[in-house]
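Regression test attached.
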Amino acid sequence: MSTVTETGTGDAAQPVATGEAFHAALDGGPARPPRPSAAAASLAFTWRAMLKIKHVPEQLFDVTAFPVLMTLMFTYLFGGALAGSTAEYLDYLLPGIMAMSVVMTTMYTGVSVKTDMEKGVFDRFRTLPIWRPSVMVGYLLGDAFRYAMACVVILTVGLVLGYRPGGGAAGALAGMGLLILFAFAFSWLWTYLALLLRSEKSVMGVSMMLLFPLSFLSNILVDPATMPGWLQGFVDVNPVTRVVAAVRGLMGGEPVAGDLLWVAVACALLVGVFGTLTMRAYNRK
Amino acid sequence: MGLAIETTGLVKTFGAQRAVDGIDLAVPAGTVYGVLGPNGAGKTTTVRMLATLLRPDAGRALVLGHDVVREAAAVRDLVSLTGQYASVDEDLTGEENLVLLCRLLGHRTPAARERAAQLLEVFGLTGAARRQVKNYSGGMRRRLDIAASIVSTPELLFLDEPTTGLDPRSRNQVWDIVRAVVARGTTVVLTTQYLDEADQLADRIAVIDAGRVVAEGTPGELKSSVGAGTVAVRLRDPEQREAARAVLATALGTPVRAAADPLALTARTPPGGAAGPAARALAELSAAGITVDEFALGQPSLDEVFLALTDRKEASAA
């Protein structure tokens, strides 16, 4: 139990009104209004996710300082060696590093779901007469805000360093939108893992194990044509590769219909499979 | 009067352990029903099954006429739960918690704010409304938790150990709130390990031990089931306890129990009138030169009932 006492908190003197005022409050409680719609419940949980960001703003480090660091690091580390100059490399790298930061950030969804689930408040949510997936949708929409933030931060750093998207503002926005959509769909994998695995640490461990190869063994940092054949095989089927290709296309002003279609299908599949698995695990818990 | 809860042969196993081992309950609507038992008796597991949080492995439970497994959504429409560990979000403020709950129950934001303010006021939390719940004291957290449970007045309210860890003043506040909620017609199911709490609040009590109901009835019935009454004696000098015990045993003709308190002794009163033997016992204690500070004649306390029923007499007397 808490060690904080009521003395000195400023409201020890405020009594609990159990007389007429209390009864009035009970009566004044409107009769249960109709159940909220799926959208209203999801939005209420999104609001909760945003409040958590408001109260613990430090958690935005991974979508602000970290992406800046990644962009600067890789631009100056590989720029000269891989593309002859950092400016040229940035054209290739920026959409990729954006995808990498966002995809890496998705792992925190699983961790925060796991942390939250251990707490009593989850029991209350699960006894409410609401659309069951709304808790999870709320998390993911709150996280979409974080992804958007990471995108904007990286784009800003890029613009400062001299990056100019070939697709203009519309292309850049479309690319970021697609990336956020993919991250939303991809995050259902982590909510499922969070419900499946027993501890926060194991969620973190499994996420890292999946995310590192997915983000590095891709077309994010280097052109796959420079890789040995067997590695190209993996890079080619890596979903991150396709997403990066699609985002690059949009931002560069030369979208490839095949890549876009591929991402749309992947999103639908991810939500269909892991969304269903998540909700099944959630209901069985 | 209808039944708010009816369970038959409810079972829940975790691995090899049968946490709930065939529980039958019948909770009358509009009353406070106490579920009393030591730690690990299966109280929380039972409540979690009734609140649709856990699926029973066997048996059946009807809550307000709805099956908890097949009609879980209908049950959720009618019940609220205040869990053993605060069922509020510690990162949010008290106000935000209540507004969130109001919104999740279908209120639009302006109405939600209004309702939250009203609840904060009567629960004495207006001053703390804008502070994160992690900085609340145990009592404040509990009050907020109960407030969250009655945002829309539920037909049935589960309170899982609502006063565990609270100081006496906070405990009294929670009790007052529970009484007021029941007065409005809500059925309350309360788990507790405190006998005085069950005695104070509950209309009926089920005593649970090792996943089974070992006794059920009104507090009065439970007390009379273990004996007519008791004599409780408190001495001034613990050195005299053994002597006093012998005197009492002879005068009353019943076994005398040494309580955990080194100054106290309790005994059942003999059948057929307690006053005579008790008066004799007091006189003989005095004649033996034993100083008695308190001498009381009464019904057995629920503590004694509890210990008798859950078979832990020896552990306590030692």
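Expected vs. actual: identical. Residues 1-13 of chain A have pLDDT under 50 and may be disordered.
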